[in-house]
Amino acid sequence: MADALVYLYAVTDAGLPEPAVDAGVDGARVRRVVGHGLAAVVSSVDPVRFSEESLRRSLEDLQWLETTARAHHAVVDAAARSGPVAPVRFATVYLDDDRIRGLLAERGAEFGAALDRVRGRVEWGVKGFAVPSAAPGEPEPAPGAGPGASYLARRLAERNRAARGQEEALAAAEAVHRELAAVAAASRRYPAQDPRLTGRREEMVLNAAYLVADDEALRHVVEQHAAGTVRLELTGPWAPYSFATLEEP
Question: What is the pTM for the complete model shown?
Answer without folding.
Answer: 0.78
